[in-house]
Every structure is written in structure tokens, then in C-alpha cells.
Amino acid sequence: MGLRLFAAFCFWLLTSSALAQAPSDEPRLVAALFRSNWCGPCKVLEPRYEAVMADYAEAPLERVRFDSSFGRRGALARRARQEGVSAVYEATAGATGFVLLIDRDTGDVLARISMAYSDADIRGALDHALQVIADREAFGL
Q: By the 8 A CB rule, do 118 and 48 touch?
């Protein structure tokens, strides 16, 4: 009985609306990679993206990976709720091969990085998104 009650509590805690909101101590900018093993554009984008992101290890952003390789849409949707980006995740409709830079507080997509982006383009998108977030925070938005 005690174990069932504990399990029920854990389930409630994991699915409660309190977790759907972004914790305030987490970075406001989310870099969400939408990928799968069979995605051709992913194979072009990911090495570039990973190489550039190495230079942003200390930047105030959170990296999230939504890997659709094994068709776990339910689990990925729960992860999106936990990260505070569920509306954006649902709008992607399972598409892969891109990175979205998302303002966690507003849900705004600040950039969509695709395989057409060079390393310089990826850096430019990241720098721009980080500046937008800094400006919004400076103005109390």
C-alpha cells in the first residue's frame, strides 16, 4: 500500500502543471535540437551545430535534444512540458532536422537553424538570440 501511494504521488508530481512551467533558475534561452537517426538534414546540421555549441558551453542557454528515432512522442511531449517549451514542441508536429532557439518565458521562437546554416550563421543566430534575451531581461520583459 505504501509503495502504491508513493508511486501515485510520483506520477502526480511528474504530471502536475507545476512542472510545466519553467523553473526560474534555469536559463531563459533554450536551444532545442529536433533530430532522428534517419534524418538526412540532421546528418548535415548536427556536426556543425555541435562544433559551434562547444564555444557556447558557458553561455546562459539550455540545450535540449528531442530525438524522434524511436517514436517516443509521448515521452518527448512530457519532456517538452518539463522544459517549458511544450507549445513550440507541439507546433513542430514531429518534424526533424533543425534547431529552434526559444525564449522559455514567452514561447517565442527567436531562430530556426537548419542545415543551410554555416558555422558563422549558427553563431550569428545564437549571438542574436542571447542578445534578445539580455535586452528583454534588462527591460523587465
A: yes
Element at 44 (helix H, strand E) = helix 40-53
- Residue found by looking up cell 519532456 in the block: 79
Taking residue 45's Cβ as centre, other Cβ atoms within 10 Å add up to: 24
Q: Whose CA is closest to 33, among 81, 80, 87? A: 80
Q: Name which of 135, 81, 77 is nearest 104 in CA terms.
A: 81
Could you tell me which residues are beta bridge partners of residue 65? 33
pLDDT tens figures, 2-40: 444 443 443 433 444 433 444 457 899 999 999 999 999
- Cα 97 to Cα 131: distance, rounded to the nearest angstrom: 25
Instruction: Please tell me the pTM assigned to this model.
Output: 0.79
